[in-house]
Write a structure and sequence with these properties.
Pfam family, one: E_motif
InterPro entries: DYW_dom, E_motif, PPR_At4g14850-like_plant, PPR_rpt, TPR-like_helical_dom_sf
Strand order of the largest sheet: 2-1-3-4-5-6
Keywords: Repeat, Transit peptide
Largest sheet: 6 strands, mixed
Organism: Urochloa decumbens
Distance between the termini: 67 Å
Protein name: DYW domain-containing protein
Number of strands: 6
Helix content: 55-70%
């Protein structure tokens, strides 16, 4: 490779400049501090008096690599060979050259240097350093096959691997090979080292929920005193990123307690915790986290990822004004910031605000991506904005160079279906350039439930059974369509299909946070300590909603209500019980927030609308797809859900 004589490296090595010890020490210090140009400039003007000193050469090689001066590394290599320092005389220099070549992507030269080493006469530690450098270089450039080939060669040469070897190999390994490296680490007595254990936890976490379980096992096997911040962040993120939000929050609770051994969370920790709070609707924990952020991290607004997590938390937990305020305070916003806020407004049914925000984002020069388009189309669907949704979907490719994916088609089928345009939704599915998946057909089936269309529902259900035969929710949906259309024989047939396949309906559950505790309710659940009072109140409210006599204006019932409550009470969905608990335990005028795992049914929707007017209270209910704010006898969804 030709050398540019104007570069610091070329000037430094022109004429093979010699160095005395003080100069070498200063070069090493400058390199260690990242002041690479100064290090190379010092070499150029160093003390030329003999004898030549080699201590500065490794640092010089590292500085050249940091400045992408490939020719400088080659000159150092040539100079070292001429002085007899290679291939084995100076292990530190050898490592520096191998590392520098690897960082610069000149892996053939790194392999050549490794090939030139006489295995029999080279010290074992020098060999290990050399192999580790090449393995790390291959891993850096995403060449897993080359990594493993060098590792096999290392094993064949009877060179013992160490933690450095594993830290390069494990992240590069496919999921199926990670347990093998784990076993090797355990056999070599390295698995208990904090760095190796942290690496295993992080790598296992990429394997979904099953990988998170393995990550948790590695973490639990670590001595508590050896768990550092990286350990906690790795295992917490493993659960948060794989939808295991309850486990993530439990780990955070342990971290903040005696198990944490005084380890304080950082922004990475808190992002994972806030993500889990958003997923669960755990407002109390999330508010505590935000309080910690404001007290301990005063400059948090410059941390874009943390601010995005806070915006997403507030938007998904029903606090849109807080989300908007945080968004407005950010000195720099990314597309993730816009996505979190737009999606939040969409979940609350404020499609007009979501569209306005999207247009503002585009006007500020931020190019939309596929994720934000899903949020925008979903917002249009929730708000019944057919024309706007159709426009944005049809112009995705022409305006933003984005090709619609299955998620975008699912949003559009949902939008068309909600609007009662079932035939148009079927035509859209037929025109898709890819095969429709269960979610697309499921959106059509959901629309058939709204509009009581069993014929189109049967078509969608037929495809779903082929694509997702074990998804019990779709069987229940089809059964409900048959129930609504009076086809009881078909209801029995679908239920028989479920029995034959061993499928069970996912139980509906709702929960309310109160005074730091989460109160969980299942349908017809009598396990809560306040169950008697809760059911009595639900019965009174049902009677008031239906206008039955015997109910005084303040909600107290006459004796027959208590008698009815003493009988087995069935048919009460979980959201009714959760709201009744909230009415019994919260102050008048305060908002009651309920999180539900399934879609709110029509009966409960009518009930909650009426009770919000009777009790003069606001209920914010987050179901499986959106928010409903019940207040004054009406719902924010305008009965469009």
């Amino acid at each position: 490779m030709a050398t540019d004589p104007s570069t610091p490296a070329a000037a430094a090595f022109a004429g093979e400049a010699n160095f005395t010890e003080p100069w070498s020490a200063r070069v090493r210090t400058l390199t260690r501090l990242g002041r690479h140009r100064e290090a190379l400039a010092l070499l150029r003007h160093g003390d030329p008096s003999p004898p030549p000193h080699a201590l500065a050469l490794p640092s010089a090689a590292i500085s050249c690599a940091a400045l992408s001066l490939s020719s400088g590394v080659s000159q150092i290599h040539a100079l070292a060979s001429k002085r007899g320092l290679l291939p084995v005389a100076d292990a530190y220099l050898l490592s520096a050259l191998l590392t520098s070549y690897s960082r610069l992507g000149r892996l053939p030269l790194a392999h050549k240097l490794l090939d030139e080493m006489p295995l029999e006469s080279t010290p074992h530690t020098t060999l290990r350093t050399a192999f580790n450098s090449v393995i790390s270089g291959c891993a850096l450039h995403a060449l897993p096959g080359a990594c493993f080939a060098v590792f096999r060669r290392m094993r064949a040469a009877s060179v013992r691997f160490d933690s450095v070897t594993l830290l390069a190999l494990v992240p590069a390994a496919p999921p199926s090979a990670v347990p093998q490296f784990h076993a090797l680490a355990a056999k070599a007595g390295l698995a208990a080292e904090t760095s190796v254990a942290n690496c295993l936890v992080s790598t296992y976490a990429r394997g979904g929920a099953a990988g998170a379980a393995l990550a948790r096992r590695v973490f639990d096997e670590m001595p508590p005193a050896s768990r550092d911040l990286v350990s906690w962040n790795a295992v917490l993120s493993a659960h948060a990123q794989n939808g295991l939000a309850i486990d993530a929050l439990e780990l955070y609770r342990r971290m903040r307690g005696p198990d944490g051994s005084g380890v304080e969370p950082d922004a990475v920790t808190l992002v994972g915790v806030l993500s889990s709070c958003a997923h669960l609707g755990a407002r109390g924990v999330g508010v505590d986290v935000e309080r910690y952020v404001r007290e301990r991290l005063p400059g948090f607004r410059t941390n874009v990822q943390l601010c995005n997590a806070l915006i997403n938390f507030h938007a998904r937990c029903g606090s849109l004004p807080w989300a908007q305020e945080l968004f407005d305070e950010m000195p720099r916003r990314t597309i993730v910031s816009w996505t979190a806020l737009i999606t939040g407004y969409g979940m609350h049914g404020h499609g007009d605000v979501a569209v306005s925000l999207f247009e503002k984002m585009v006007s500020e020069g931020i190019r939309p991506d596929n994720v934000i388009m899903v949020g925008l189309l979903s917002a249009c669907s929730h708000a019944g904005m057919y024309d706007e949704g159709r426009k944005y979907f049809s112009t995705m490719e022409s305006a933003y160079k984005l090709r619609p994916t299955l998620e975008h088609y699912t949003c559009m089928v949902d939008l068309l279906g909600h609007a009662g345009r079932l035939e148009e939704a079927r035509e859209l599915i037929s025109s898709m350039p890819m095969t429709a998946d269960g979610a697309v057909w499921g959106a059509l089936l959901g629309a058939c439930k709204i509009h009581k269309n069993a014929e189109v529902g049967e078509e969608a259900f037929k495809h779903i059974v082929e694509l997702e035969p074990n998804n019990a929710g779709y069987y229940v949906l089809m059964s409900n369509i048959y129930t609504d259309t009076g086809q009881l024989d078909c209801v029995a047939r679908v239920r028989a299909m479920m029995r034959d396949r061993g499928l069970k309906k996912e139980p509906g559950c709702s929960y309310v946070e109160h005074k730091g505790r989460v109160h969980l309710f299942m349908a017809d659940d009598h396990s809560h300590p306040q169950a008697k009072r809760i059911y009595e109140l639900v019965i009174r409210l049902e009677q008031m909603v239906k206008g039955k006599p015997g109910v005084r204006e303040n909600g107290a019932a006459e004796g027959h209500v208590e008698k009815a409550a003493a009988q087995p009470v069935v048919g009460f969905h979980s959201e009714k019980l959760a709201v009744a608990f909230g009415l019994l335990n919260t102050e008048a005028g305060s908002e009651i927030v309920v999180i539900k795992n399934l879609r709110v049914c029509g009966d409960c929707h009518l009930f909650l609308k009426a009770v919000s007017g009777i009790a003069n209270r606001a209920f914010l209910v987050r179901d499986a797809s959106r928010f409903h704010r019940f207040e004054g006898g009406v719902c924010s969804c305008k009965d469009y859900w």
